[in-house]
Amino acid sequence: MIIILLLILLFSGILFLNFRFNSGKKKVEEEWKKANIQRLNPGSTKSLRILPLIDWYSSGIDLKAEAGVSYLVKTDEISILFDVGFNEKQADPSPLMHNMKQLGISTGDFDAIVISHNHPDHVGGMKWQKKKSFSLTGHQIDLNGKAVYTPVPMIYPGLDPVCTKNPAVIGKGVATTGIISNQDFFMGRISEQALAINVEGKGIVLIVGCGHQTLPGILKRAKALFNEPIYGILGGLHYPVTDSRIKIFGIKIQKIFGTCRLPWKPITMGLVHENISILKEYHPGIVGLSSHDSCDASIKAFREAFHDNYTDIMVGKEIDI
Ligand SMILES: [Zn+2]
Ligand SMILES: [Zn+2]
């Protein structure tokens, strides 16, 4: 009797999630169609340097790695902390603060914080995600004077984060793509923004958090926003085909959560190669995949496809564009 009841519960749960997934996908499509996308003219920057502070692979034994993202993005006029890592164990100091110290970076080295999306591996942990906030370490440090741009309304003590739902210029040569939403089977609606930086003489470099927007979605949005060609893309694009960096009781979480696909239709190497072909049409000068949400097989496929234009994203290894 109990087994039958459990089966009924499970079946109705799946039915509900399936219904929510399908209607959510339709709403996401409508949102895309209704989005008021006008060309942006952000100006340009001569220099662009990206220093990964948190990712799955690190370039030194004194640096900590974890399944999260935090990059220090430096242009001629503005420095941005893009996401604030995972800090899964809520350590204080967090892996991010540890790495910043090792690399000689302080909070004085950035003017603004951009949060790609409100997921634990980007806002400094589950605790802060639930509060619709973020934290660089186990407690919220004083960030007075920093500009903050979030994809959904978020809070931080003493700060007034700007919700950049729509594409906007946030500094000379620097823009946000605005949110591109997607529907996940288990997690529901995910609204994520990416950075777009116009490098003089080269074009737009996209910096992405988890890539729930999908690579084709991000490219389509960037193409609609800018007159300049797309020069490159760096960051998370969510291709956990053979493995997942986050595992709970041995379950490969990233293969099921955050794919924005039906759980019985996971991301395949076929899809990875399809996406590579789409990106190749842009002849990018720089491509780098975050290892925090992509498996080694996907990274290998990207590396082989883009040869010398591929760069590894590793904590402590600065990417100079
Ligand atoms: Zn992520
Ligand atoms: Zn995510």
Could you characterize the architecture of this molecule?
It is a single chain. With 321 residues, the protein is an alpha/beta fold. It has one domain: Ribonuclease Z/Hydroxyacylglutathione hydrolase-like (Metallo-beta-lactamase, Chain A), CATH 3.60.15.10. The chain is 27% helix and 22% strand. The strands form four sheets. Strands 6-5-4-3-2-1-17 form a seven-stranded mixed β-sheet. A six-stranded mixed β-sheet has the order 7-8-11-12-13-16, covered by helices on one side. α7 packs parallel to α8. It is globular and about 70 Å long. The site of one zinc ion (ZN) has 9 residues, from α3.
Kindly state the number of beta strands.
17
**Residues in helices, as a percent range:** 25-40%
CATH architecture: 4-Layer Sandwich
Mean pLDDT: 95
| Largest sheet data | 7 strands, mixed
What is the CATH superfamily classification?
Ribonuclease Z/Hydroxyacylglutathione hydrolase-like
Task: Give the structural class.
Answer: alpha/beta
CATH topology: Metallo-beta-lactamase, Chain A
Give the end-to-end Cα distance, rounded to a whole number of Å: 64 Å
The domain count comes to 1
Q: What ligands does this structure carry?
A: zinc ion
Question: What is the spatial order of strands in the main beta sheet?
Answer: 6-5-4-3-2-1-17
Percent of sequence in beta strands = 15-25%
Our count of helices gives 8
Rg (C-alpha, Å): 19 Å
- Helix-strand sequence: HEEEHEHHEEEEEEEEHEEEHHEHE
What sort of overall outline do the alpha carbons produce when their principal axes are compared? globular
CATH domain class name: Alpha Beta
